[in-house]
Amino acid sequence: MEILSALSRLFQLSLRDIERYMTQLNVLVRSFPKTEVFFPTLLTFLLVLREKNPALYEQYCKGGDDGFSVIDYLRHQPTGQEFFFN
Fold this sequence. Notes:
Elements: H1 2-11, H2 15-31, H3 40-52, H4 54-61, H5 68-75, H6 80-85
Helix pairs in contact: 1-3, 2-3, 3-4
C-alpha cells in the first residue's frame, strides 16, 4: 500500500494509526461484492481524510468540492510538497 506509506509520512501517522487504517480497509474490502470494482488507493485516502479533516471529507463526498480544496489542504501539510513531488 504505497498510498498508506505516503500518507503516513504526510500526516506523521503512528504504527497504531497505520494498523487501524489497515483494519478498516480490510473490513471495507471484505464487504465489497466480488463482482464489484473498488479502488483501494482511493478508499485508503478517503479513510485518512475522514479522520484528519472531517469537514473537508464531508464537503468532498457530498460533491460540494471540486477537489482543489483537498489538494490545497494536503499541500499545506508540513511535508505536503514532498507528497506531491516524490
